[in-house]
Amino acid sequence: MLYREAGEFKSTYQADQAILTIRQDRWFMWALLAVAFVLIPLVSSEYWLGTIMLPFLILALAALGLNVLTGYAGQLSLGTGGFMATGAFAAYKLATAFPELNILIVILMSGAITAGVGLLFGLPSLRIKGFYLAVATLASQFFLIWMFNKFGWFTNYSASGVISAPPMAVFGDNFVTGPYATAEAKYLFTLTLVVLFALMTKNLVRSNIGREWMAVRDMDIAAEIIGIKMLPTKLKAFAYSSFLCGIAGALWAFVYTGSVEPLAFDVNRSFQILFMIIIGGLGSIMGAFLGSAFIVLLPIFLSNAPHWVGLNIPVDLISHIEFMVFGALIIFFLIVEPHGLARLWQLLKEKLRLWPFPY
Amino acid sequence: MTIKRIKTSIIAAAVISGSLVGSSATLAMESQFIGSLVYRTGPYAPGGIPWADGFADYIELLNARDGGINGVKLELEECDTAYNTDKGVECYERLKNKGSTGMPAVMPLSTGITYALLDRVVADKIPLITSGYGRADAADGRVFPYGFVPPATYWGGADIAINYIASQEGGYGNLKGKKIALVYHDSAYGKEPINTLKALAAQHGYEFSEFPVPHPGLEQKATWLKIGRQLRPDYVLMWGWGVMNATAIKEAAAVGFPREKFIGVWWSGNDADMVPAGDAAKGYKSLQFNGVGSDFGVHKQIKSELYAKGKGSAKSAENTGEVAYNRGLQSAFILTEALRTAMAEFGNKPVTGEQVAWAMDRLDITDARLKEVGADGLFDPIKLSCADHLGKGRAKVTQWDGSQWVAISDWIEPNSEMLRSMYEESAAAYAKEKGITPRDCK
Amino acid sequence: MRIEKSVIFIFIWTLLLMVAIPWTIGKVSSNIFFEWPFFFEVAIGGLLAGVMYSLVALGFVLIFKASGVFNFAQGAMVLFSALTLVGLNELGLPMWLAIIATLAVMLLLAVAIERVVLRSLVNQEHIILFMATIGITYFLDGFGQTLWGSEVKILDLGIPNNPGLYFDGKILINDFDLVAALIAGLLVIGLALFFQYTRIGRALRAVADDHQAALSVGIPLKHIWVIVWAVAGIVALVAGIMWGSKLGVQFSLALIALKALPVLILGGFTSVPGAIIGGLIIGAGEKLAEVFVAPLIGGGIEDWFAYMLALAFLVFRPQGLFGEKIIERV
Predict the structure, then answer these.
(1) Which domain holds residue A258?
(2) Which listed residue, of A16, A296, B134, C164, carries a Cα 20 to 30 Å from C278's Cα?
C-alpha cells in the first residue's frame, strides 16, 4: 500500500533511466543519505564514528571494488589486501614526496596507481578461471606485501617499515588525517568519497561496460562469440576494482588508523572483503554495504553484547562464543538466502509491494 | 580445564547477580578504571594468556591486600584483541572513556595496535606504554609526549645481545671476523634491530647477515639450511614471534646448530614457545627485561593473597613464574606506580590519562621501592624524565634448562650514548614527517 | 591413470629449470654459493617439506573431488582434530584410545556438517558452498578453543628430531622429516587403494565423475558426502598429528592451510596424485628459490614464490597439472 509504483508515470527517457525508478525508493535513499550525513554525526559518539562507522565505510568501499570484479565481472580475486596496501603506500609516497598536494588528489592518484598495478596482476585472468584464479591472485597478495615490507624506498627507509600519515586537510584547517582530525571530519570526508564512488559504480555497471562485465561473468565463451573482447573487458574490471580498493587502502592508512605496517593488509584482509561480498550479495552495490556491515559490525556487537546485558563472562570465552555465533550466523544466512543479504532486501521490497493485501 | 571454564562462568553469573544488588554500596568511593588490552585467544594466545594473568593478578593483589592504591579501588576490565589490530583499536576506543576518569594508560601488547594508536593517544591524551615493544624512538619524550617504552627497546636489546656475545668471546676486540646472523619475523617488529646490528657491525667488524622469515613462520627449512649448513655463523640472534620461535629452535636442532649460540629477544623467550620445542630448546638463550622464576616476594604474596583463596587468574599457582606472567606483573607494576605518582600530585582520587602521562614523565622506581614490593631482582629500577621515556633499558640473558629459564647474566646495560643519538635521529625524522614540534623539556 | 604428454613435458622442464637456475646463479653471482651436495640437501629438504604440504592439500582434494566444495575449513579441521586428540589424551585417555575417540569425533563432525550445512545448500553455486565452509571454520575455531583452551599443547609421539647425515656425511636429512614423509606416503597409498578397490571408493569416484549419473544408478549421495568429509577428517587428523608434533598443538596450526593452496592449484583441485606431485614441486621449488635466488632480492620470498610458481604452471595448464580438463560449451 505504501510502497508501489502504481500511478507513477514517466514522461521522459531520463526519468525512465533513473537509478531509482520508484518514488518511495528515492525518498528512502534521500532519507538514508540525510541520516548518514546529518543525523549520525550529530548523535554519534566518537567511538561510534571513529571505530565503527569509519572501518565500515572504508571496507564497504573495498568490498564495492571487489564486487565489481567478482560480482559483476565474475573474476574471483583474493588480492584485495595487496591492492589496498598498494593504495596506502602510493598515498604515503605521494604525500611525503609532494607535501603541498591536497589529500583528495593524493587519494585519487593513489587509486590510479593501484589501478595500474591491478591491470598487471589481472593478466593471468585471461587464462585462469574460478577458484584457480582466486588462489592465483593470492600470488599478487603475497608478492605486494612482501615488496612493501622488503624495500625501504616505499617507507622512506624507516627502521620498522611502518608508514604514517602526515596531517592533511581538505581545505583550510579541516584536518582529516593526523592526531588533530576530529572523528566527524574523518567520517564526513570518508562518507562523501564512498557515496560518490558508490554512485559512480552504480552508473558504471548500468552502462555498456557493466553489461559487458556481466556477459563475461555469466558465460565468457558466449560473450566472446557475441563480440565482447575478453582482454579489455576483464582488464577494465581489474583496473576499476583495484582503483576502488586502492582508495580504500589509502583511506584506511591515512584516515582510519594513521599509521600502518604492511601486515595490516595481509591475506586475512583479502578474505574478509571476499566474505563481505558473498554474505552481502554478489553483483550488488547494496550488497557491499550490507556485507561490510555484517562482517564489521556483527563481531563488535557480539563482543559487546555480554557487557550490555550485564554479564561478566571472561574475555576469552566471549571471543570464543563470538567466533561460534559468527560462524553459525554465516551458515544460517546462507541457508536462508544463499544469494546474500542484498537479495533478502530485494525480497523484502517485493513483499512490501503487496503488503498488506497479498492477493 | 573445561570444567574450570564452566565453573567460572557459573560463578561469574552468580557473582554478577549478587553484585548488581551490592554494587550501590561500593560506588560511594570512586574507583580507578584500568583497561587492559589482552590476547587470550587467537594464534598468539599461548604467549598472551600468562601476560594477561600476571597483569590481572597484580591489580587484584593490590585490591585484596591494600584495598587498591591509597584507598582508591582498582577496577580492571579486559578486552580481548586476539592480537588483531582492528579489534585492538575497537577495544581501545571502547575502553578509553570508561570509569570516572577514563583509561589511565594503554598497553596494546602488539606492534600493529601500537602503530594504529600512535595518533589516537595524542588526541586523547592517554599515555601509550609499550614495555619492550613498539617504537624504539618513543624513547625521545620530546617528540612522543604520550609514548613510553620502559624498560627496554629492541635497539637496546640488539646492543645487549652483541654486548653479551662480546663478553662470551672475551671482549669486543674479538668480534672481528665473527659471523653473526639475525633470523627475524618479516614485519615491522622483526626489522627493528637491523639498523642497530648493522651499525654495531661497522663498529666492531663482525660479519652480519639477515634472514627474514615470512609470517607466520611455520616453515623455516630453507632458512636454517642456509644458516646451519652454508653460512655456519658463530651466533644467531632471533627476533621471532609466536609459532615461529618453536619452529626456529626445532629447525636449529635439525641442522645441528648449537642452541647455546642461539639468542632470542624477549618475545622469543616465552615459556609457551619452549614447551613445543621440547628437548631441542635446551641450552637456548633469550634476553629478558625482567627476572625469571617465582621466588620473589611479590609472587609469595600473590600466592597467599589470591591463589590460596582460589582467586588467581592463572590456571594454577605454578604458572605464576612464567616469563610472560612476570612481564604482565611488571606492566601492572609500572602502571600502578605511575598512578601512585599521579595521586601524590593530584590527590587520592581516580586520575586521568593526562595526569598519568605527567606522572610517567617523573616515574622513579628505585631499588628501595622494588624491595618494598618484593620485586628486587625481578624488575630493574626505572627512572624516566620528560625527555627520556626509556630509562636504562637494561636486560638479562637467560637460558632454558629444559623446564625453566635460568638467569645466566646480571643486568646488561646497552650503549646508551650511541642508542640515544639513534633514537633522537629517528624521532626527529618522524616529527618532521608528521609535522610535530618537539616539546621543550628544560 | 593416463598422463598426458604435455604434463610430462612440463614436468621435465620443471626439473631442468630447478637445477639450471640455481646452478647458473651460483656461477654468475658471487653472493650465492653453489655446490652439489648442498643443492641436493636443499632439494631433499624441500621435497620432504612438500610432502607435509601435500598432507594438508589432500584433505582439500578429497572434498572438492566428491562434492565440488572448496573446503576452507580444512585448516580448522586440522587444528580441531589435533586439539581434540591432545585434549582427550590430557584427560587421561591413552594415546591409541584418544586417536580412536578423535576419529569418532571427526565422523560425528562429518555427519553434522552434512546434516546442517550441505543438505540445506544442495545445488548451490560453488562460491556459496565455499562461504558456508568459512562459517564452519569460524565455528570450529571457536568451538575447539572453548573446549580445549588456547594454550599451546605438546604432542609427543617420540619421533626423533635429530640431524642425520647421509652419503658420507655430505647430505643432512632430518629424521623427523623422513618419518613424516613416510607416514604421509603410507596414507596416500592407503587412500589410493581405498579409492581403487573398495565399493565405497568406486562409489566416490562415480560421484566425483557425475553427481546425477551416480544418483541414477542408486548411489546414495548423502552417505557419500558423510564418508568423504569423514575421510577428509581422518586426513586432517593425520596432518594435525604430524604438524602438531612439529610445532606444538596451537591455533597457528590452522594457518598451514595457506601453505596447501599453491600445492592445490598446481596439482589440480581434483587429483590425489596431483596433491602429492604438487607438494613435491612446491616444496622443492620454494626451498631452492629461498636458498639460491632470494638472497639476491632480499630474502623471505618463500610465501609468494610458491604462489608464483603455481601461477606459472597454471599459465600452461589452467586446470592444474593433473586437474580435469575444463571443457566449455555455450
Answers:
(1) 44-265
(2) C164
Tens digits of per-residue pLDDT, A306-322?
Answer: 878 877 788 888 889 98
Instruction: Give chain C's domains with CATH numbers.
Output: 5-316 (1.10.3470)
User: Whose CA is closest to A191, among A352, A58, A290?
Assistant: A58
Asked if residue B239 and residue B198 are part of one domain, the reply reads yes
Beta strands B396-400; B285-288: pairing state: antiparallel
Are the CB atoms for B131 and B62 separated by under 8 Å? no
Top residue of A76, A321, A330, A336 to mutate, by most chain C CBs within 10 Å, is A330
| Domain presence at residue A332 | no
Range 17-56 of A in CB contact (< 8 A) with B: 46-47, 50-52, 55
- Do B163 and B260 sit in the same domain of this protein? yes
Same domain flag for A30 and A58? no
- Using a CB-CB distance cutoff of 8 angstroms, which residues of chain A are in contact with residue B215? 263, 266
Beta bridge partners of B217: none
Rg, chain B, Cα only: 22
Position B430 in a domain: no
Chain B residue nearest residue C170, CA to CA: B229
Q: Domain with B47 in it: what CATH number?
A: 3.40.50.2300
CA distance A296 to chain B (A): 9
Whether residues B249 and B172 fall in one domain = yes
CB-based contacts of B315: which residues, under 8 Å, 6+ apart? Answer: B1, B4
Residues A76 and A196 both lie in one domain: yes
Q: How far is C296 from chain A (nearest CA, A)?
A: 12
- CA–CA dist B290, B301 (Å, integer): 18
- ipTM > 0.85? yes
In A, minimum Cα distance to C143 occurs at A324
d(CA C295, CA C26): 11
Give the Cα separation of C228 and C106 in Å (integer). Answer: 11
What's the number of domains chain B is made of?
Answer: 2
Over residues C124-183, the pLDDT tens digits come to 888 888 989 999 999 999 999 899 988 888 888 877 777 777 877 778 888 888 888 888
Global pTM reads: 0.91
